[in-house]
Amino acid sequence: MRFLSRRLVMPNDLNFAGSLFGGRILEWIDEEAYIYAACQLDAKSLVTKHIGAISFETSAYQGDVVEFGLGVKKVGRTSLTVTCVVRNKQTKQNICVADDIVFVHIDPATRTPEPHGKTQAELEDLKLETPE
Questions:
Q1: Which end of the chain is more exposed for a tag (fewer CB within 10 A), N or C?
Q2: Which residues contact 100 (CB under 8 A, 6 or more apart)?
Q3: DSSP-assigned letter for residue 90
C-alpha cells in the first residue's frame, strides 16, 4: 500500500470532543479514493457505488497530519474496488480503515455503467513502474 497524500487536521475538522469528526474523515476518504481510482483507470467519469467496512481505530487531533494509503483490491469490467488506510503521519498509527470502496465507470452522457478497459494485470504492471 502506498501513502500518497496528506492532510492537516484543522479546527473546523473537529467534533464536539475535540477529535477529528468521523464524517470529515469519510469525506476525505471518498475524495482521495476517487482521485486514486481515476488515476489508476485514467478516467474521470467515476461514481462511488459502495463503501464497505469502516473501522475507526484511534483518534486524530488538531495539528495532526494524516496520510492516506490506497491500494487496488479488485478490478471488474466496469468497476474498481480500492482499500484506504488513514494513519497519523508521525506515529504511523491507523486512524481509520475503509475497505471495499467501489467505483463504477460511467458514460458521462447516459450516466450508465460502461467498461473502463483496464485489467488487473495492467494495474499490477503500473504498480511495478511507480517508485515507492
A1: C
A2: 50, 51, 52, 53, 73, 81, 83
A3: T
Q: Report the C-alpha gap between 122 and 84 in whole angstroms.
A: 20
The CATH architecture that domain 2-127 belongs to is Roll (3.10)
pTM: 0.89
Q: Rounded to whole angstroms, what are the CA distances from 71 to 16, 25, 40, 48, 59?
A: 32, 18, 10, 16, 23
Domain ranges for the chain = 2-127
Cα(51)–Cα(14) distance, integer angstroms? 22
Q: Kindly give the confidence (pLDDT) of every residue in the chain, 132 residues in length, as a single tens digit, with 9 standing for 90 and above.
A: 889 899 999 999 999 999 999 999 999 999 999 999 999 999 989 999 999 999 999 999 999 999 999 999 999 999 999 999 999 999 999 999 999 999 999 999 999 999 999 988 888 765 544 444
Cβ proximity of 56 and 22 under 8 Å? yes
**Dihedral sign of CA atoms 6, 10, 13, 19 in order:** positive
* Closest by CA position to 86, among listed 47, 49, 58: 58
